[in-house]
C-alpha cells in the first residue's frame, strides 16, 4: 500500500496567524475604548460644582419669593372669586324666588281685583234694584192714598166714583180704605228706613275695604322698596369684588435689568 499525506501550503498558515493577530488587536482596541469611556465618565462625575456668588443666590431667592407671592395671590384671588360666584348664585336664587312670589302675588291680586269688581257690580245692581223697588213702593202708596177717598166698582176695569151723598156703609168703607192707606204709608216708611240703613252699612263696608286695600298696597310698596334696597346693596357689594391680575414686583424688574 501507498501511504497518502496532505500537504498544507505555507500561505494558509500565514493567513491564519494574521487573522488571529487582527482579532487580538481589535479586542485590545475595544478594551482600551471601554477603559477610556469609563475614565471619561469618572472625570465628568467628579467635576466640581460651580460656587454661586452671594448676589446670584439672593437674586434666586428673590425670584423664588416673587413666584411664591404670585401663586399665593392667584390662590387668594381664586378663593375670592369663588366666594363672589357663590354670592351671585345666592342672589340669583333670591331673585328667582322673588320673581315667582311676585307672579303669584300678581295672580292673586288680579283674582282679588276681579272678585272685588264683581262684588261691586253686584252691589250696584242690588242698589239699583232697591231704588226701583222703593220708587215702586212710593208710587203704590201714593196711589193707595189717593184712591182711599173714592169708592171702587166691582166691574172690570175698576172705576172710581164718589157720590155726593154717602151712606153709612160708604163712609165705613172710605174710612177703612184710609186706614189701609195709612198702614201702607207706615210700612213703606219702615222699609225705606231699613233700606237707608242697609245702604249706609254697605257704604261703610266698602269704605273700610277700600282703606284696608289701600293700606295693604302701601305696605306692599314699602316692602318692595326695602327688598329693592337690599338687592341693590348686595349687588353693590359684588361690584367691588377683586379682579385677578398678574403682579409686577419691582425686585423682579430690577433683577431683569441687572
Automatic annotation (TrEMBL):
UniProt keyword list: Coiled coil, mRNA processing, mRNA splicing, Nucleus, Transcription, Transcription regulation
UniProt feature coiled coil, ranges: 93-127
Short name of one Pfam family: Pinin_SDK_memA
Region described as Disordered: 1-62, 74-93, 169-258
Ranges of Basic and acidic residues composition bias in the record: 36-50, 169-235
Cellular location(s): Nucleus
Domain Pinin/SDK/MemA protein: 56-179
Main subcellular location of this protein, as a coarse class: nucleus
GO biological process terms held by the UniProt record: mRNA processing; RNA splicing
Any Gene Ontology CC annotation: catalytic step 2 spliceosome
Family affiliation: Belongs to the pinin family.
Protein known as: Pinin/SDK/MemA protein domain-containing protein
